[in-house]
Amino acid sequence: MTQILDGKAMSRQILDGLKNEVASYRQKGFRAPGLATILLGNDPASAVYVRNKRKRADDVGIKSFKYDLPTQTTQLELLTLIEELNNQGEVDGILVQLPLPAHIDTSLVIYAVNPDKDVDGFHPENIGKLSLGHPRFLPCTPKGCMYLIQASKSKLLGAHAVIVGRSIIVGKPMAYMMLNTDATVTICHSNTRNLREHTRQADILITATGIPHLIGEGDVKEGVVIIDVGINKLEDGTLVGDVDFDAVKNKAAAITPVPGGVGPMTISMLLENTVAAYRHHLS
Ligand code: GUN
After folding, report:
1. What pLDDT digit, counting tens, does each position of 223-274 carry?
2. Rounded mean pLDDT of 121-139?
3. Quick one: pLDDT at residue 167?
4. CATH topology of domain 140-263
């Protein structure tokens, strides 16, 4: 029987745990944890993601500092805001939703966030720590993928993990996390030749391409664990992953659905990182 990796249920459990933890701090008289979310521009998908992050933060008892900035906000204005939040004692975590408009240098923005408040885990100091095997904040989406892989109970030591996608948000940090758990890692991307030759070797396949149904039945081997990060909207409005779920489902030992797999985990990981930052800032 194929195991369906239910990110929605797992996420709910994690959020409940965080809510209890925050409540116990509050009962002892400590301030609430604080998360600043910055949304720049009017990309509809980003607006939905940020709205959900804020809502879940409220549910858990995290105080939201919300910044909805117009598209024409300058780089200097954004960097000035980040600097203020770096110095604001009630703010434990800072999230700048990506992608940013083209006139803003994303790297500069990521570099500007205090690494102690970098709950996205994108700052070079945090990526560096992760690459060295002693992470501080793990980037949220790959961290959520790790939880789901662990729930599949598949052995990571020596397993061949094939990652399709090399973004800073998913592919690269995912590769470090898999390496840190002693998997053998292959990273594929848009210039990889014969993608299928690689994906067919995967014991664990993680896809983050944004190409609907890129992976079909012939692209995976029997018993694979599939983590599908893709959330793609078809013309009729249906949400599908990078993997053709129905076609590969019976071949996989475990697979994430879309929606309801990786997506909900990303938010709970953000809030888990925020509470970790809070704990650290209180101590
Ligand atoms: N855009 C898509 N995923 C993410 C994420 O995990 N963090 C941020 N900041 N932006 C994103």
Report:
1. 999 999 999 999 999 999 999 999 999 999 999 999 999 999 999 999 999 9
2. 98
3. 97
4. Rossmann fold (3.40.50)
Average pLDDT, the chain: 98
Global pTM value: 0.97
- Residue with the smallest CA separation from ligand 1 atom 9 is 97
Query: CA-CA distance, 110 to 202, in Å (whole number)?
Result: 32
Of 38, 120, 123, the one to substitute when testing ligand 1's pocket (max ligand atoms within 8 A of C-beta) is: 120
Name, in order, each residue with C-beta under 8 angstroms of 69's C-beta and a sequence gap of 6 or more.
38, 39, 40, 41, 77, 78, 81
Angle between helices 171-180 and 124-132 (to 10 degrees): 30
Q: Which residues line ligand 1 (CB under 6 A)?
A: 95-98, 120, 140-141, 169, 266
Q: How far is the CA of 129 from the centre of ligand 1 (A)?
A: 19
Helical (H) or strand (E) element with 3: strand 3-4
Determine the Cα angle at 47 with ends 44 and 51, to 5°. 145
Domain range 29-114, CATH architecture: 3-Layer(aba) Sandwich (3.40)
* Common-topology check for domains 29-114 and 140-263: yes
Find the mean pLDDT for residues 183-200.
Answer: 98
Inter-residue contact 31 to 88 (CB < 8 Å): no
CB–CB of 242/212 below 8 Å?
A: yes
